[in-house]
Every structure is written in structure tokens, then in C-alpha cells.
Specification:
single chain, 306 residues, alpha+beta, four-stranded antiparallel β-sheet, 12 strands, 30% helix
Length: 306
């Protein structure tokens, strides 16, 4: 069933459900907002494509775009588990579009049987203040970290018999299991299907096999993994870092970071970064190895009545 399009918008604007052909327009809106809020652009069209091509995501049923003529000026989406996102081009902010999109997200979540909808926003931004005024509360805080230019992470030798290398394609399902088992220890959501993982990682535009790094134990079994995305800016971003619960406190995660950043530099990376949030308890680990926080985000959410 198509997404509800009952948005309270100025008469000059229109709205409709989006399709994959709108990925570039969404990227441009988000990039303009990031530039205004953060002073740089992190979003790429490949991020949108990778997310929207997941089998579990029905683009037409889960998105809405706001248009000024043929120009996309705002958008929102609602995914599984009450995960949402929205953006309004800076040139069109202050006209009630953000409020209309937030209300649409609530209505869409309720119609889908969800009991909560939330989204990340930069702490202290206009979007943060808007959602706070609309009654959205903070669920958790997240941080974007970078390794300062010229800095290196001290190598952490692996235990005897362990090795770090590129994952083999046959190991991708195990990589997925290691990631999901670790992330579901603190993330309240349904388990991600391998098909969704594959769409967002291996089928993401620009993916190369070296970007999935693994640590294997003496028996050759994958026990830890790091997944890297090479951004157009030249930054290597570790999007997932996970260690099997029975293999922790052996330095595997730090060894993976050293390896990931070094291999990324070999492939042309000029900077390295990652993200974490307050549910993981990992911020101190990354700061101890020399990474610094460059952005703080909050995930704001609100309860909805199905």
C-alpha cells in the first residue's frame, strides 16, 4: 500500500512517494543540510542506494518526498524497528516542512504497527531543537571519530595462532553472524537478514572484497570482523567492528583497527574514521587508541499509537 501523503505543506509545494531514481535528489538535500550543520558532507548516493536496495525495504511504501516543482527539497523515510530519517534543504527550512515530515513519520510508523519512531540528528542543530519541541526524547548519543592526520594506532599483536586478512566470499554469512550477534547485545531490533546485509555491504556501489577484514582463530574460524567503506572524500570509514563474545579482551578489535586503517591507506585513503554510540560503551576504547570526536549526534524518538 502506498505511503500516506497527508502532509501539511505550503500551497506551492507537493509531495509523493519516492523511488530509486530519487536517490540522487535525496543525497543532494542531505548533503546541503550536512554542509550547513557540520561544515562538511558525509552522505553519498551509494549510502542511499545500499540502504534502499535491501529486500526488506519497500521504497514506495516507506518514503515521502517534498517537491518545489520538479526539485526535491525534503524527504523522510521509516524503516523496520522504528528507524527513521528525514532532511530538509537549508533553503526551505523555516516553512514547516520539517514539522510536516516529522508528523508523517509518526503517522507512518503507527500505521505500520510500530510503537516508536526515532531518527539521528546533530546535537544542538535546528533539527535537534525542532524534534525536542515536538516532544521527541533522546534515546542515545552517538559520536563520529577520526584518527588525526599523521597519527597511527599502536599495533596490537594478535594471540598466537590468530591471523588478520581479507574475508573470503564463503565466509560472508559468518561475518554477518559475528556482526549481528555482537550488535544485538545492545541494539533493540529484529535480527537483520543476510540478504539485507548483502545489499548494504557487498552490493553497495563501490564495494571491493578487501573492505571486509576478519580475524581468524587457530582453527581458521572467523571470530572478529571490520567492514570498511571508502568515501568519495578519501576517508576510510569502519562501519562495523565486532568480536565474538567468547573472543573478547584479547586485543582483536584494536588489531582490526590497525589493519583496517593501514590497508585503507594502501588503497588511497587519506583519513580514517568510525562511529559509535552510548549503547556500546566503546567510546573510551577508541579515544585510548588516539581517535578524537569530531561530531556528536543524538537519536530522538517519540512513542506512537498503532
Amino acid at each position: 500500500m502506498p505511503a500516506p501523503l497527508s502532509l501539511d505543506l505550503p500551497d506551492s509545494l507537493s509531495s509523493r512517494a519516492l523511488g530509486m531514481a530519487d536517490a540522487r535528489g535525496v543525497t543532494e538535500v542531505m548533503a546541503a543540510e550536512q554542509q550547513a550543520q557540520l561544515g562538511r558532507v558525509d552522505i553519498e548516493e551509494a549510502d542511499i542506494v545500499g540502504d534502499w536496495q535491501r529486500p526488506s525495504f519497500d521504497i514506495a511504501d516507506s518514503t515521502v518526498g517534498v517537491f518545489d516543482g520538479d526539485r526535491l527539497v525534503g524527504y523522510a523515510e521509516v524503516g523496520l524497528g522504528g528507524r527513521g530519517d528525514a532532511s530538509v534543504h537549508p533553503d526551505y527550512q523555516g516553512r514547516g516542512i520539517g514539522t510536516a515530515l516529522a508528523r508523517w513519520m509518526q503517522a507512518k510508523a503507527a500505521a505500520s504497527g510500530m510503537d516508536v519512531i526515532g531518527m539521528p540528528v546533530p546535537e544542538g542543530s535546528d533539527a535537534d531543537r525542532l524534534l525536542a519541541a515536538l516532544g521527541y526524547h533522546i534515546r542515545w548519543t552517538s559520536w563520529v571519530l577520526q584518527l588525526p592526520e599523521g597519527a597511527t594506532i599502536a599495533q596490537r599483536p594478535l594471540p598466537e595462532g590468530y591471523a588478520v586478512r581479507t574475508a573470503e566470499p564463503a565466509e560472508y554469512p559468518t561475518v554477518h553472524d559475528v556482526v549481528e550477534d555482537a550488535f544485538l547485545e545492545w541494539s533493540v531490533r529484529d535480527r537483520e537478514d543476510f540478504a539485507d546485509f548483502e545489499a548494504g555491504v557487498m552490493r553497495r556501489p563501490g564495494f571491493e572484497p578487501w573492505q571486509i577484514r576478519v580475524v581468524t582463530d587457530p582453527g581458521g574460524e572467523v571470530v572478529a570482523t571490520a567492514i570498511i567503506v571508502m568515501a568519495d572524500s578519501g576517508e576510510a570509514v569502519v562501519t562495523r567492528l565486532a568480536t565474538r563474545s567468547d573472543q573478547r579482551r584479547r586485543g582483536l578489535a584494536q588489531a582490526l583497527l590497525v589493519d583496517s586503517f593501514a590497508v585503507a591507506r594502501e588503497h588511497g585513503a587519506v583519513a580514517s574514521g568510525l562511529g559509535t554510540d552510548s549503547r556500546t560503551g566503546a567510546l573510551g576504547l577508541y579515544e585510548k587508541v588516539g581517535m578524537v570526536v569530531i561530531d556528536t549526534w543524538v537519536n530522538r524518538a517519540i512513542a506512537v499509537a498503532p
